[in-house]
Amino acid sequence: MIVLPDSALDALLAQDVPYGDLTTDSLGLAGRPATMRFAARAAMVLAGTEEAVRLIEKAGGRLTQVLPSGTAVEAGAVFLESDGPADALHRAWKVAQTLTEYASGIATRARRIVDAVPGVTVACTRKNFPGAKDLSVKAVMAGGAVMHRMGLSETLLVFPEHRAFLSGPPEAWIAELRRKAPEKKIVVEAGSVEEAIALAEAGADVIQLEKLPPEAARAVIEATRHLTPAPVVAPAGGVTEANAAAYAAAGCRLLVTSAPFFGQPADVKVTLQPA
């Protein structure tokens, strides 16, 4: 599935090659038959390969083989091959490579967290780089995670910054939210064990723990398990592959994280040579 429309891919190519490829054109390489191969320099989970193919095609190249997003590959594995005129492949080269590297980096980090917590849902936040949501969401899903929120329009998540404007007990505004959006779950962020328990007792469906350690998550789960229904306790802020298993061991079945979005891109080796 391609998530970036042709207009977006055209814009990426236009940014990189606005007035032709001065080097390739000046060397007289236009029209010479060539091949281009993408290979993983290290183990990774692929993402964005479909967009890379479309970029190559739009530049004038032809696909010969590709592995889909979501495929885990080992170091050295060739996952995309194309051929065509040398000038066409040179036009697509860096844009397609960089897009695949960044998307695969996200997918690989997401997969590592998912693999660390079997049976637990890993949900990524909307804190992807502005303007890169479509590809970031695709990469998260390629890694086996889900999206926590796509944006502000479809979910109820009450932050302390919202509560600063509210008066009265939490039971009152939680009841009002339930009246206005009866089909939605009410998610509330808490910054302490005590606050989390109070919000759960007030009727919140999901308690999002902001940067609280696994032992705090365990305390909230144990203190609220008697409620009917018991709230979902979801740690958020600082959840990584290094501590995800500890949160799962504490009883959390939903982990909220931004970690996949931040880190090194995957490393893709490109071989572009005469056919």
TrEMBL record:
Recorded family membership: Belongs to the NadC/ModD family.
Gene Ontology molecular function: nicotinate-nucleotide diphosphorylase (carboxylating) activity
Domain annotation Quinolinate phosphoribosyl transferase N-terminal: ranges: 21-104
Gene3D superfamilies per the UniProt record, alphabetical: Aldolase class I, Quinolinate phosphoribosyl transferase, N-terminal domain
Naturally occurring in which organism (per UniProt): Azospirillum doebereinerae
GO cellular component, one term: cytoplasm
Matches recorded under Pfam families: QRPTase_C, QRPTase_N
NCBIfam families xref list: modD
Domain Quinolinate phosphoribosyl transferase C-terminal residue range list: 106-259
The protein, known as: Putative pyrophosphorylase ModD
